[in-house]
Specification:
The complex is a heterodimer of chains A (about 425) and B (about 240). Chain A has about 425 residues and is an alpha+beta fold. Helices cover about 55% and strands about 15% of the residues of chain A. Chain A is built from 14 helices and 14 strands. In chain A, strands 1, 3, 4, 5, 6, 7, 8, 9, 10, 11, 13 and 14 form a twelve-stranded mixed sheet that branches. Chain B is globular. Classes of the chains: A alpha+beta (about 425), B alpha/beta (about 240). Chains A and B meet through helix 1, helix 11, helix 12 and helix 14 of A and helix 2 and helix 3 of B.
Chain lengths: ~425, ~240
């Protein structure tokens, strides 16, 4: 089927009217170009928005306590309660699908007063008592030294990992940080590491102004006993935290004698739900891109179909001659179909290449001018290119089908009579 | 070779039905050179189209080389045309963007003959009609007579049983007409069965038998003494 003669026939047919061929091809080129650009723009937006999540484990929720809103077992509403370390173990035991449960305690916070002192420098920073797992849930780059480890937890070492922002506030530019002491609420901690977080957007500066100390040391130093301020809980990859969180709440409610239907007692922020919502948004966006792109492509394909109809009309006599010489209907049909597919694919490939070129240029410009909020690295992956190619082949077939059908409908005798 | 009995064909034109062939009985043996004559509208081209399987009869039987041609689908018709028949048309019907050799090779292409063998064969037939040195020329670079000779070479290329020529000299002046007829006679001398539709007497008399059609029936069918074309020099 794909021998040299067939190709030379196709080339002859396509090159017999160059201007027309190029104009027709442009329709398809434009369609696939739009499709590629739309998909790439969607991807760029998606990359930009998802960059705001940083590397945070998205299958995570944060859980804190609120006021109990329902009386239960003789206890009144309006009570307050506090998580205890025992809750962490209980959740671990009852909900096995969880990957990390990090109890956290916190000092300072938004608008807090100065709580950290080093020599003459003071500053107001968020101070967290944490377990080593938190670095998996809220990734950060350790720029020097180390992060909290279980040795720190067990021996309740008073060590601290400080952010780059803390470092600038408390230290001179060439000072060694590791091994120095900072005073948090009057308690000395030795600095064993510095970190930098990758997040973008409004919180990015604040994110660098945090201090991490071991949970146990925190509890002891600041008199928290076994109380837990809040928890960061991450589910295993296979399960979604949104589905698991009710189980977690049940465990907590039972341990703290809270009415099972009390929805207000436990506050939570479900990152996964937010993330899913955004995922859904981008899925819809992608769908729209495909829809619009395919429609634009369709108009190009109709153009090809039209031209093929004209070509068949023009070559009615030639088709008649070929039929008289023994061309089977399939030979004729195949010829027309192949011509239209070749035209579609070649122009489509050019469109994809042009799209890739434009995307490359946009990336260059973006790289040169620094990051743009909500937009980064527009790209199409190979699967998109492959699906575009499949769409092209199918549309080429469709474009050729009606003209091919027309071509074989012509009776040889009528075709020969055409002068 | 060809046997038709009681062949009818009519065309519907709007509300009118045009009865073109009204019962043709007709036999052609191998090696015959038959001229089909008649004025326009007598049905001679229709008859040739039916013989060429380009058109189908409404009624009657048609047997070609022992094969009953009946209820053909297009695929089989194409195969039979390719295998049994060679066509020569009044307007030559060469494909304009292909050179002489490619035109001659076309039926072989549809037979699935390999490229080299195809070109070799096509060259052989071009030589036979005296146009070997014109092989790479496009049809519009050839004279009318040359075009018709290319068309004859093309019709012969598939080695058909029967050659059907529809007014092969209709578009040619008398000198080139005779050249074409000379070739046709020499092919016939080699034993090929040939049917020619013509309305020119002199051309008809260069055949061995004349069938006269009028208003869709055969009014006369006689063997004649053939007029041989003088061996004129080829161009």
């Amino acid at each position: 089927m794909f021998n040299r003669d067939r190709w030379s026939e196709i080339l002859e047919a396509l090159s017999s009217n160059w201007f027309r061929t190029v104009l027709t091809a442009f329709g398809v080129l434009w369609g696939i170009f739009i499709l590629v650009i739309l998909l790439a723009a969607g991807k760029g937006l998606e990359n930009g928005v998802k960059a705001d999540f940083g590397d945070i484990a998205t299958n995570t929720m944060f859980m804190w306590t609120q006021t109990i809103s329902k009386p239960y077992k003789g206890l009144p509403k309006g009570r307050r309660f506090t998580y205890r370390l025992g809750d962490v173990q209980a959740i671990k035991d009852n909900v096995p699908e969880l990957r990390f449960i990090s109890p956290r305690n916190q000092l300072g916070g938004f608008g807090g007063s100065n709580n950290v002192v080093r020599g003459l420098n003071t500053g107001a920073f968020n101070v967290y008592g944490d377990y080593p797992e938190i670095i998996e849930q809220q990734p950060m780059d350790i720029t020097s030294g180390r992060f909290i480890n279980y040795g720190d937890i067990e021996e309740k070492r008073k060590v601290a990992i400080i952010g780059e922002g803390v470092k600038t506030a408390l230290y001179g530019s060439n000072e060694d940080v590791l091994g120095t002491y900072i005073k948090i609420n009057g308690v000395n901690f030795i600095v064993v590491g510095t970190y930098k977080k990758k997040s973008q957007g409004g919180d990015s500066e604040e994110d660098q102004k945090e201090i991490y100390v071991p949970f146990t040391s925190f509890s002891q130093a600041f008199n928290r006993g076994d109380r837990v301020g809040w928890m960061a809980i991450t589910a295993n990859d296979g399960s979604s935290i949104t589905e698991l969180k009710e189980n977690i709440f049940d465990v907590v409610k039972q341990r703290h004698t809270i009415h099972p239907d009390d929805d207000r007692a436990i506050g939570n922020f479900d990152l996964y739900e937010q993330y899913s919502r955004i995922e859904g948004l981008f899925f819809a966006l992608k769908l729209i891109a495909y829809f619009v792109g395919t429609l634009v492509l369709l108009s190009g394909v109709i153009g090809i179909s039209n031209i093929m109809l004209i070509v068949v009309k023009e070559r009615t006599k030639e088709i008649g001659i070929r039929r008289a010489l023994g061309a089977t209907p399939w030979a004729i049909r195949g010829q027309v179909l192949l011509e239209s597919i070749v035209l579609t694919i070649i122009s489509g490939m050019l469109g994809i290449s042009l799209g890739a070129l434009v995307i490359y240029a946009i990336n260059k410009v973006l790289d040169a001018n620094g990051p743009v909020d909500m937009f980064s690295n527009p790209s199409v992956d190979i699967s998109v290119v492959i699906s575009a190619l499949i769409i092209l082949i199918i549309s080429g077939l469709l474009a050729g089908f009606i003209p091919a059908q027309n071509a074989i409908k012509i009776k040889p005798v009528d075709a020969l009579r055409t002068e | 070779m060809i046997e038709i009995t009681d062949l009818h064909k009519s065309y519907v034109m709007g509300t009118n039905t045009l009865h073109v062939l009204k019962g043709i009985d007709f036999t052609v043996n191998e090696g015959e050179l038959v001229a089909i004559m008649g004025s326009s509208g007598s049905g001679k081209s229709t008859l040739l189209n039916i013989l060429g399987m380009l058109d189908e009869a409404d009624q009657g039987t048609y047997t070609l080389d022992g094969t009953l041609i009946h209820n053909l689908n297009e695929k089989i018709a194409a195969r039979y045309r390719n295998k049994f028949l060679g066509f020569v048309f009044q307007s030559f019907n060469l494909i304009s963007y292909k050179n002489a050799l490619e035109n001659v090779a076309m039926p072989l292409y549809y037979q699935g003959v390999k490229r080299n063998e195809r070109n070799e064969k096509a060259m052989h037939y071009l030589e036979k009609v005296g146009l070997a040195e014109w092989a790479t020329h496009l049809p519009n670079e050839l004279s009318g007579g040359q075009k018709q000779r290319v068309a004859i070479a093309r019709a012969l290329a598939s080695e058909p049983k029967v050659l059907l020529a529809d007014e092969p000299t209709g578009a040619l002046d008398s000198t080139t007409s005779y050249e074409v007829m000379e070739i046709i006679q020499s092919i016939n001398d080699e034993g090929k069965t040939i049917l020619i539709v013509t309305h020119e007497d002199d051309i008809a008399h260069m055949c061995k038998r004349i069938v006269n059609l009028k208003d869709g029936i055969i009014i006369d069918d006689s063997i004649i003494s053939q007029v041989r074309v003088k061996a004129t020099s080829h161009v």
